[in-house]
Design brief:
Distance between the termini: 52 Å
Number of helices: 15
Order of helices and strands: EHHHEHEHEHEHEHHHEHEHEHEHH
Oligomer: single chain
Strand content: 5-15%
Bound molecules: 5-phosphoarabinonic acid
Largest sheet: 5 strands, mixed
Number of strands: 10
Helix content: 40-55%
Length: 431
Amino acid sequence: MPVELNTKYLDSFISGEDYEKIEPSVSLAHNFLHKKTGLGSEFTGWVTLPTDYDREEFSRIKETARKISANTDIFIVIGIGGSYLGARAVIELINSRNYNTLPKTTPDIYFAGNSISAADLSDLLKICEGRDVSVNVVSKSGTTLEPALAFRVFKRFLEEKYGKEGARKRIFCTTDRQKGKLKRLADEEGYETFVIPEDIGGRYSVLTAVGLLPIAVAGIDIDELMLGARRAQEDLACADLDQNDCYKYAAIRNILHSGKGKSIEILASYEPNFAMMNEWFKQLFGESEGKDGKGIFPASAIFSTDLHSMGQYIQSGTRNIFETIVYFEKPRNDILIETIASDADGLNFLSGKTIAFVNKSAFLGTLAAHAGGGVPNIILTVPEINPFEVGYLIYFFEKACAISSYISDVNPFDQPGVDAYKKNMFALLGN
Ligand code: PA5
């Protein structure tokens, strides 16, 4: 299977009895999700999305991405939370964080409206000067302050640069089919719109137009992405805990949390390009599980980078951590380590090996050290980074998150806590 769970480094932490005890809760969670009888079941459209997505809109996304690529140097994606993280995560994982500096035929992609930083927005406007720009504003509610503010700024920028008619052809809105201020504005102005299905919440929406349009503009094969997700939908539909790695992962998280006092999960990868996937994961699990005084705190790391910062704490700090490692077996590229006559750096013992081999040794060495130091390690092995595997991985995590939330008896699809800061902020702003 494209994502394989390895439990070897959990054996001293979890027993067969632990799995037996949690099995009924997993079965219940499966039924909640598949029979749409659980909390928030009106937001489970993502479960069958890889097979029943809107084919007509999908073709329009590909066509629009082609048009954008032909007339655009800079593509600005405006959105926050679930309306931005997934697209950025997929683009940066597949195309590499340094991609914008490589020769390519697709526009440079920048993200805006995910903070209220005036400095950040001004910098972005400067980058756009003298270049052809298109904008995709993404907001399901159509009322979120951060993207609405950024869009106000970019709408004006485009209208000044291209005139109202020219700007109209460069603005693309992804929002609710009917409701919200953004939908109203898009209809009034005649912008091309894409739909966020009503039954799919923000953090589960990366495989809708929310993620697909920016991902397609980045030149990534969205057919493959959806095929990978579709394969996951089929593979991970089985109710049997023993046969379903996704459910096993969800079960293990809950066993470690409620039975063994492990309240922090560090999602880690040995690929720096995974950094935004970490952020996407943290939002998915944090907003889904962190409520009613419950939830595992989702943290993240990139190794070996963070072994030189967080490694000390993980190895011997408070023993309330477990790690989930996403390990990609085949690197996109590799580099042979050559012999140097002087051996001034003392690294000739690595001659003939590759950088990827050294990275794998760091992975295996760290696993043994952390597990031996009291940190359970869950390993998710993925063959390589490509659109198919990434589509699979996204679905794997979305489903694991929903199942895990149901096991701990919370609604995976709401986020009542997010409103608290908004109320205070709007009161301070006089609204
Ligand atoms: O997962 C969620 O529902 C949230 O993170 C939203 O995506 C985020 O708050 C943005 O909301 P909207 O798309 O309505 O602007």
